[in-house]
Task: structure prediction
Amino acid sequence: MDKRVKKAMEPYWTENFGNPNAIYKEGLIARSAVETAREDIAKILGARAKEIIFTNGGTESDNLAIFGVVKNFKSGHIITTKFEHHAVLNSCKQLEKEGFEVTYLDVGKEGVVNPKDVEKALRPETILVSIMYANNEIGTVQPIREIAKAIRIFKKSGRGKLLSLSLPAGEAGTDEEGNPTESKFSSSVFPYFHTDACQAPGYLDLNVERLGVDLLTINGSKIYGPKGIGLLYAKNGIKLEPLLYGGEQEKKIRPGTENVPAIVGLAEALKIAEQEREKESARLVKLRDYFINRLLGEIPKTVLNGHPTQRLPNNINVSILDAEGESIVLYLDEAGVACSTGSACTSESLEPSHVILAIGKPRAYAHGAMRFSLGRSTTKKDIDYVIKVLPDIIKKLRMFSPVNISV
Amino acid sequence: MRPRGFLLGEPKEGEFDSYGEVGSLACGDIIKVWIKVDKETDKIKDFKWQTWGCATAIASASAFAEMIMKNGGMKVEEAMNIKPKDIADYLGGLPARKFHCSILADKAFKKAVENYRNKK
Result:
């Protein structure tokens, strides 16, 4: 976490510990901190303060966006991609069990969704499109604006669904199954467009108007902010059903006493990320490309996963063949380098990365996938160090590896 | 972090009596083992392995090699009795989810012995 963030949070642990829902002085101080944070965040997103809902993190925000929209329906169609974060993917899988239809779009060899594929997948019964802004494993940036445009054109043509809930009483009804019926309006209300933007702050434009999204997820821990805090932007007029029931906090959409220090921290982290975005991105793009070139040039049988340039400035993901990801991670850890396989190999299933498989690479490539993330403190010296130690580690692992995969 | 008992490159002609292999590229672990057996005593004279896989797969192969080669080599029958749990205990315990999929040395060894017995 950024020290500036920690400093901003400090007064709200013990000094100003009030419950923001109370009307005594301490409560008002806490309330003011929460609302200031909300306004600061709204400004960065180009949104209105009332469109920001605080949650406990990215996973909850994704779940709220998906189930919160879908709960208004008994059936319907959802479009997402094959390489979403599990918070979205597993939510969609659950909805399939509940009778919803889901289209999982291909992401091509480079890991970038084609807006034309979204266009083709749209149906009259589509209620939600959820496509991530940037992939968390391979860092590829998705054409969110173009996808939003395709959805907008579809809606304007009136081919989409209308929901009675978002219309004044009497404007539309529901059929015997409780699904909204068509109305006299020519432009459709659905589908809503959600994007998981957890990887984006600090690197990509977050303006929701320019992006053209209805719902957007951000979390704290990816942006040098606190863990256990996130937000969902929900455009004014979007009808969301809560996942939790309780008090009236966050417009009853997310009840529970607000996590005041974390909310303040999230706002501070987002402000810093936005302030430093251009300069830091430019610095990291150079480092990223330098790192990729040296990895591919100096370690034989290494391939880059994902589009070479349409990717986050801080992401490097390569498959190093004939060596396995976890062993590389542990040897690098011993050498003082923290990186990850980017695969779920540490999870219960031990399945290789669904992202690497989604870009059409064989399973053996997925098992050798390595993800390096650059950060604010990463320098060229750090990269040179990795390039100094990594080739020997790979040589060692290949030395006792019985496989010889052809590139 | 310092695996022992692995084979560098391809074995030489006649260096071993038999070999066994388990796992697949798809599942993420492959282990190959080679054995040389003393025909008189049925003791394992040499055992070498190669592994592509996670740390547990590598460590369990290395541990298995140590277990059967200490004191000048175990008898084949005795080595056949080594269970995944014995390897895990030798390593000081392993996470439960790594147990079944990653301890492959004993299985590869059994295949090698099977091949050896069939050859005779």
Summary: The domain at 18-115 of chain B is CATH 3.90.1010.10 (Sufe protein. Chain: A). Chain B has one domain: 18-115. Residues 56 and 102 of chain B are 6 Å apart (CA to CA).
